[in-house]
């Protein structure tokens, strides 16, 4: 049953990809994630962590089962509706930052909110960039920023619309240890300040211990 007090409910979620030789990548995932909860997602390479994140974020449609995020049944939506549903509901932080190179830091944060129709997108983006310590970098392009600074912009972009759920896929994977540690501190601090739930894919046991709960994927299932 779907639980209304949960930000995420997943029920018997399956994902099969490939038409010639179909591979069942997710094989019956059940999980609930509460409001404000932080969850580390561990598992060997190829176990399906990124695929589960793609399904929870609405970037990939489950082949069967049910995914509900913030009260909305993702499995009942078509691709266009999913794209709209993601906006503002889910923030995503990836290993490789994925900032738009032709936009300044502020535009990278503001433009998704403008697409969402938020009138104060510019002001909010400036506030959010200040919250991640980049008030002096608003007009810089990604190529003019360090890796750690680019990830700060990505965190600001993810959190500025105040999503209920933040999904982070190895957010420190492209950073040196010291910068990575600062990015993790920042991500947890911003999550705390905004009350978002966090699912973070990591191979780092110390980072997993900072989360309220640890889920481990084994061969397309949660152990
Ligand atoms: N489009 C696709 N078609 C077929 N198989 C795929 C496709 N995308 C991913 N896979 C397979 O699904 C499995 C799970 O991949 P996924 O990226 O979710 O794993 P992961 O646990 O995130 O791995 P890693 O830690 O290496 O990032 C892998 O065996 C992968 O090869």
From TrEMBL:
GO molecular function: ATP binding; ATP hydrolysis activity; transmembrane transporter activity
Single GO cellular component term: plasma membrane
Gene source species: Sphingomonas metalli
Coiled-coil blocks: none
Stretches assigned to the ABC transporter domain: 8-223
KW ATP-binding (keyword) present: yes
Record key words, sorted: ATP-binding, Nucleotide-binding, Transport
Lineage: Bacteria, Pseudomonadati, Pseudomonadota, Alphaproteobacteria, Sphingomonadales
This protein's name: ABC transporter
Pfam families linked: ABC_tran
């Amino acid at each position: 049953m779907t639980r209304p007090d949960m930000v995420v409910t997943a029920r018997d979620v399956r994902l099969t990809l490939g038409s010639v030789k179909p591979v069942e990548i997710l094989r019956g995932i059940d999980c609930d994630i509460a409001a404000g909860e932080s969850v580390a997602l561990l598992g060997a390479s190829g176990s399906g962590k990124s695929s589960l994140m793609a399904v929870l974020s609405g970037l990939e449609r489950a082949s069967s089962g049910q995914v509900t995020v913030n009260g909305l049944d993702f499995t009942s939506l078509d691709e266009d509706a999913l794209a709209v549903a993601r906006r503002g509901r889910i923030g995503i932080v990836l290993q490789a930052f994925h900032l738009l190179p032709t936009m300044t830091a502020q535009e990278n944060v503001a433009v998704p909110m403008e697409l969402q129709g938020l009138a104060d997108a510019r002001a909010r983006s400036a506030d959010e960039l200040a919250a991640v310590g980049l008030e002096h970098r608003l007009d810089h392009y990604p190529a003019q920023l360090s890796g750690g600074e680019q990830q700060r912009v990505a965190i600001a972009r993810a959190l500025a619309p105040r999503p209920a759920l933040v999904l982070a896929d190895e957010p420190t994977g492209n950073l040196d240890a010291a910068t990575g540690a600062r990015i993790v501190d920042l991500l947890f601090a911003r999550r705390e300040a905004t009350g978002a739930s966090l699912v973070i894919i990591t191979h780092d046991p110390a980072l997993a211990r900072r989360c309220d709960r640890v889920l481990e994927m084994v061969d397309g299932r949660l152990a």
